[in-house]
Amino acid sequence: MSDVPCPPHVLREYSVLADGERGAVVDPEGRVVWLCAPRWHSDAVFSALIGGCGHFAWTPVDPWHVWGGAYQEGTLIRVHRWVSADSVIECRDALAMPASPDRLVLLRRMRVIRGAARTRMELDPRPGFGTGHLREPRLEDGVWTATGGGLRMRLLGAPRATWDPRAGLRGDFRLESGDQHDLVLELSTAAPTGQRLDPDELWARTEQEWRRAVPDCSALAAPRDARHAYAVLRGLTSGSGGMVAAATTSLPERANSGRSYDYRYTWLRDQCYAGLAVAAHGPHELLDTAVEFTAGRILADGDGVHPAYTVTGEPMPKESPLSLPGYPGGADRIGNEAASQFQLDTFGEALQLFAAAARHDRLTKDALDAVRVAVDAVERRWRERDAGLWELEERWWTHSRLSVVCGLRRIADVLPGAQGRRGAEIAESVLAETRRRCLHPDGYWRRAADDDGPEAALLVPLARGCMAPDDPSTGLTRARIEERLARDGYLYRFEHPGKPLGEAEGAFLLCGFHMALATHHLGDRVGAFRWFERTRTACGPPGLFAEEYDVRQRQLRGNLPQAFVHALLLECAVRLNDASTLPL
């Protein structure tokens, strides 16, 4: 084994394991090429995905095989499958649940379905994004231990493996038809407890937790995809309440364009999207965690609330580079500059989330206090320029104003007396000025007060019912967006001067699902399903979505899995299957 990273694959071929506190990316050959430990925003211990060192492979030795696999329904337990001329092998992978913030357990169970197979294990933990090594390896009672980079490692299941100081553990296994073998990897920052690594017990608890956490979605449109989307959201949501935007950093949205970002943090807007999607289905656990986390941040920071935080609610670090080669076409970086921006629509989405919670009788005292803080913040700051949904230059973005109008109206509907009236009055003031500045004489909404261009972000408040279906601006805006920003059944964010759609960036999958909801809001259920079905095809074999989709090459672009895309798939599956939700 050398320091050469694992060869990269196109993004659509990777699968993701997640337990709420961290996530692992696995390539189709069974190599874990990305894992941060102990938490989402910690340094990676396996960073081969972005050109660093460190991976955990367990693969067939025979190169003449094809790969496949699927997730166990309603979970992020991945079942890999390799077929060769002489054998069929399955390997089940999972991060053990319930999870602990300071301890991760990665489960791998290999089983030979037919024939006999020789497999090879390579475990090369490299803390600090590949810069460190684990030291002091020891084998006691069949369990390997080592330490380094603030981590303690234990590995069960490879007593005959050999340790290379520069390359970690390596071992071969020969399995006959019907044989099963387990590997259990533990990485922890806590002091050793001597807790036994029992594969059967760990698998049983993990499957039980997934059954508890992910609700039945059989009554929804696309029930398997909807339940998978819920499982992704659960896997990305920490026990502290925060949901990361994605499991990875630095996967490029466009090759060699500088558009590579770190999404291992919680964007309040994204968490509100997820909470609203879950609320549409029912008063499930992820609604409560979204309300709790969002309310906590608003109460702590008031009208200075940040767009994003760590999953524990701490400030997100500023962006800085990593000295790694990067995923092909990307540039490695950690942290994100969005933390310092003002994004007005965050308050609008938070108010909509709190209103949805109130309709399920899940509005806590802290959330009610956060409503007052958010309404005050909107009243003080709605006239200011902001960075908007796409985190661009500060302008008077139409979408941001309409989002707070929608949020204020929704919360006014569920708050009694003077509080509700105040919210409604502020909403009318914001809408009146936004109409004056941002409604084009031809009746459609401008992108911004100083920009007549089409803007897919406007679909968000339209889909949420900010304007009534019979308000002319709703249909005119939706039609203009479709005419100018849709190609081949997919939707783009906005126009880039001098470049055709699809050349500057990929189709934006969030926008495709919002188009489905906006179309549904206008009463066109067939058209809404057309947008829903087309957009949900933009994934790879594991059924994971990235932020963007290269339509011509049929490839994913950007970090994965992108939480807000899965959230909107879930919401579409609920609303499009229920005629009673027409209109919002």
What's the structural blueprint in terms of helices and strands?
Layout: E1 15-18, E2 23-26, E3 31-36, E4 44-46, E5 55-60, E6 65-71, E7 78-84, E8 88-95, E9 103-114, E10 117-124, E11 135-140, E12 143-148, E13 151-156, E14 162-164, E15 168-175, E16 180-188, H1 199-213, H2 223-235, E17 266-267, H3 268-281, H4 285-301, E18 308-309, E19 320-321, E20 333-334, H5 345-359, H6 365-381, H7 398-414, H8 417-438, H9 459-463, H10 472-485, E21 486-487, E22 490-491, E23 507-508, H11 509-521, H12 525-535, E24 548-550, E25 555-557, H13 563-575
Antiparallel strand pairs: 1-2, 2-3, 3-4, 3-5, 5-10, 6-7, 7-8, 8-9, 9-16, 10-15, 11-12, 12-13, 13-16, 14-15, 17-18, 19-20, 21-22, 23-24, 24-25
The structural class is: alpha+beta
Beta fraction of the residues? 15-25%
How many beta strands in the DSSP annotation? 25
List segments where confidence is low: pLDDT < 50 over at least 5 consecutive residues.
580-584
* Helical coverage, percent range: 25-40%
Approximate shape: globular
Continuous helix count: 13
Main sheet makeup: 8 strands, antiparallel
Rg (C-alpha, Å): 24 Å
Mean pLDDT level: 95
Q: Termini, distance in Å?
A: 58 Å
